[in-house]
């Protein structure tokens, strides 16, 4: 990142762009910074969050829901079937990005820009490595993923409803 230039995208909003190598249990992995309003499907309002029209019943303002998953932007936490899944700040930001754009294919470059920033210097494979780590935590069978779909030669997509 350039000096004096603010970072853009969900990583900048979450304040955790530089923790790509954070491991569970490390101080970076345990950060619970405050969330901020994000793009669709949650529509920002004057107070910071408003539920989208298609939001599931029982999902509070500032939360996303997809299949068995519930993501809280205000708490920076993710649950699957009511059980919390511990994610590093980078993993959390990546899951939030995918869930926000559920059903939409995102290129590796788009993911890299949104999570690590446009000025990231390093290998594009960092996206694949983090997706693999996330699948290990989210998927029942990581080798046959139901939630994060690989779009070969392009990138990834969060499947609608996990099917």
Topology:
Elements: H1 10-14, E1 63-66, E2 69-72, E3 77-80, E4 83-85, H2 89-100, E5 106-107, H3 108-116, H4 125-138, E6 148-151, E7 155-158
Antiparallel strand pairs: 1-2, 2-3, 3-4, 5-7, 6-7
Helix pairs in contact: 2-3, 2-4
Strand order of the largest sheet: 1-2-3-4
Beta-strand residue percentage: 15-25%
Continuous helix count: 4
- Counted beta strands: 7
* Residue-averaged pLDDT: 74
> Which word captures the global form?
globular
* Helix-strand makeup class: alpha+beta
How do the helices and strands follow one another from N- to C-terminus? HEEEEHEHHEE
Please summarize what this structure is:
The chain has 163 residues and is of the alpha+beta class. Helix content is 25%, strand content 15%.
Descriptive report:
This protein is of the alpha+beta class and 163 residues long. The chain contains four helices and seven strands, in the order αββββαβααββ. The strands form two sheets. It has a four-stranded antiparallel beta sheet, covered by helices on one side. A three-stranded antiparallel beta sheet has the order 5-7-6. A hairpin with a 2-residue loop joins strand 3 and strand 4. The longest helix is centred in the last third of the chain and has 14 residues. The N terminus is likely disordered.
């Amino acid at each position: 990142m350039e000096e004096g230039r603010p970072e853009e995208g969900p990583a900048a909003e979450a304040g955790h762009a530089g923790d790509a190598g954070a491991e569970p249990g490390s101080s970076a992995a345990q950060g619970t910074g405050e969330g901020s309003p994000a793009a669709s499907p949650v529509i920002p309002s004057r107070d910071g969050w408003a539920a989208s029209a298609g939001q599931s019943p029982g999902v509070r303002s500032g939360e996303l829901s997809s299949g068995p998953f519930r993501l809280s932007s205000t708490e920076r936490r993710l649950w699957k079937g009511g059980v919390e899944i511990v994610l590093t700040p980078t993993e959390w930001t990546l899951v939030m990005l995918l869930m926000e754009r559920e059903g939409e294919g995102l290129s590796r470059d788009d993911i890299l820009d949104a999570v690590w920033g446009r000025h990231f210097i390093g290998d594009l494979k960092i996206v694949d490595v983090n997706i693999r780590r996330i699948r290990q935590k989210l998927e029942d069978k990581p080798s046959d993923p139901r939630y994060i779909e690989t779009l070969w030669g392009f990138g990834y997509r969060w499947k609608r409803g996990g099917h």
